[in-house]
Amino acid sequence: MPSLQTALPPELANNAIRLYRECLRRAKYIGHKQHNTELVVQMVRQQFRKHVHETDPEKIQKLKDDAARGLINHILYEAESMTGRKFS
Fold it and tell me: Counting beta carbons within 10 angstroms of the beta carbon of residue 52, is it exposed (0 to 12), middle (13 to 18) or buried (19 or more)?
């Protein structure tokens, strides 16, 4: 299965720390809109911390793909909300 990370800028997709920071930014944005910032940010932190010592390259790639998928889904959701159009 091809990596989903190609939909993100390479400097973000190839760097776990930048990916983490972007996930936190999105979590803060979503949390602010839903009035549960601490909960959403804590969920993101918990997921990254749970896998911080992972060394298997395939597992790391899958985890990065999962994070990229979450970011892409949020970007599409926001675009749909702003334009009123449905993207697929």
Answer: exposed
Q: Any idea what DSSP says for residue 8?
A: S
Percentages helix, strand, coil for the chain (3-state, rounded to 5) are: 75, 0, 25
Average pLDDT, the chain: 84
> Any idea what DSSP says for residue 7?
G
Assigned token pair, 22: 């972007």
- Which residues fall within 8 angstroms of residue 37, CB to CB, at 6 or more apart? 27, 28, 31
Residue 35: CA count within 13 A, CB half-sphere:
0
The string of pLDDT tens digits covering residues 33-55 is 889 999 999 999 999 999 989 89
Please report which confidence band the pLDDT of residue 15 belongs to, taking 50, 70 and 90 as the band edges.
confident
DSSP conformation class of 38 = H
